[in-house]
Amino acid sequence: QVQLVESGGGLVQAGGSLRLSCAASGLTFSAYAMAWFRQAPGKEREFVSGIRKSGESNGYADSVKGRFTISRDNAKNTVYLQMNSLKPEDTAVYYCAASALRATRIRDAYGYWGQGTQVTVSS
């Protein structure tokens, strides 16, 4: 049974930092591309960042470029999202996702999803 478990969310002031983690189990982690998506209230789930099986980034949404960094540790079956200079508009539930196909920004390509972790940035 595949499980993706996010952690690290919380309440932070604007300008602060958080590091999200997503621990994977039940799959061969190194064989999957991983990604972070987020969903704010009343909005669609959107791509934040992705990372290839090799560890090379698959890019970032324009809104987070230069502030967020994705990484993975295949030995720990974990993908991370370092979020710096947080803004109120970053407030959302953040989800990690796994794709057996390829690294992509397309939501439907990801077959496995975590339950999400709430990030709230106060102004």
Helix content: under 10%
Rg, please? 13 Å
Question: SSE order, as H and E?
Answer: EEEEEEEEEEE
User: Can you summarize the main beta sheet?
Assistant: 7 strands, mixed
Average residue pLDDT: 96
What proportion strand? over 45%
Contiguous low-pLDDT stretches (5 residues minimum) are none
What does this structure look like?
This protein has 123 residues and is mainly beta. 0% of the residues lie in helices and 50% in strands. The strands form two sheets. Strands 2, 4, 5, 6, 9, 10 and 11 form a seven-stranded mixed beta sheet that branches. A hairpin with a 5-residue loop joins β5 and β6 (57-60). The mean pLDDT is 96.
Topology:
Layout: E1 3-7, E2 10-13, E3 18-25, E4 33-39, E5 46-51, E6 57-60, E7 68-73, E8 78-83, E9 92-99, E10 112-113, E11 117-122
Parallel strand pairs: 2-11
Antiparallel strand pairs: 1-3, 3-8, 4-5, 4-9, 5-6, 7-8, 9-10, 9-11
